[in-house]
């Protein structure tokens, strides 16, 4: 029996959170029309890369009549060809033969080891140390103004994106997980570094935490005078908007947001929206209204992902929708060099064409967006265009942010390569022998020599 939209939204709003994991894959992939061998291949991939979805995504976002080609389905369900065929076949054979958990985990770990679980120097370059050179857990400090903190209770999500570059947080391997519950250590670090003006809570998803937990992390920061902004990186608006509308602590969470704003700090809600269909629900629109009502600024960002949002029309629709609901389009990212990058990545030349095609169609109010941007080891690099200089076809790029602040805003050029999908696929152009960052004076922990700051 069909349900009226209002009744459907009401039912969804009052529904308790229910997670679906690997043990539910056969049931769900059968619903998408996959044959038995296809289901087995998907299950093999899910033994390597994490799978988790919830009742809201299943019932409200996925068009099951269009599955498995529906973009939201592809956003959350593993695809058989996300990993090399030989790896998928080997794990599928183990599953079919009834192999034990230990053998399956060993095979999965072998595949994971080839997937660059912590790209851009996250573990060896971004982690600061104490006075006795001990790494400080759960903190990354790549750019002098911004500290990233990974609260241990926020290292999961309401659902997992198949393209997620932080997949290593979710696979149950303690050696790959990056997190901390040391609130005082985080606060002391920020307090002792006056150059830090922004703290980004990230994960996983910090909004998986209840208000009582997240407030213990945020409230001590409000007393630090040099801190200007608190950011929360989250997919919760898209995957579980009830977190801000009908969950038991929704109102308390919004009061916490109001407290941050009242303290004189900017609360930047960094919302991940990967496709315009994620904005269709009245629930998410109400959640956006409630968050904006606290004084928080919602900025939207997502990577460009092949088979999910790789068209100018999709991004134009997404940015215009976000603007209409009072959000600020912020970033189009390039898929990072980790996990199933070969499956999801869009070549830089094509990425620029997609960005430019959408950018041309939106008003100046939506041209706050930046991209295509690569969050690479030396910094955030934006592809500004393709042109010809002295007879040579080149990419024009610049640093939005960098380990070495001297590089910020600096344009540079790379040889045009229609297949290049990442910064390190590029070669210097116009007779240059190296890129600007290759001589940067990097010191301990991957931070630039303090004498340069």
UniProtKB/TrEMBL annotation:
GO MF annotations in UniProt: 4 iron, 4 sulfur cluster binding; catalytic activity; metal ion binding
All copies of domain Radical SAM core, residue ranges: 141-365
Gene3D superfamilies per record: Aldolase class I
Keywords, comma-separated and alphabetical: 4Fe-4S, Iron, Iron-sulfur, Metal-binding, Pyridoxal phosphate, S-adenosyl-L-methionine
PROSITE patterns per record: RADICAL_SAM
Cofactors named for this entry: pyridoxal 5'-phosphate
UniProt name for this protein: Lysine 2,3-aminomutase
Organism: Nocardiopsis eucommiae
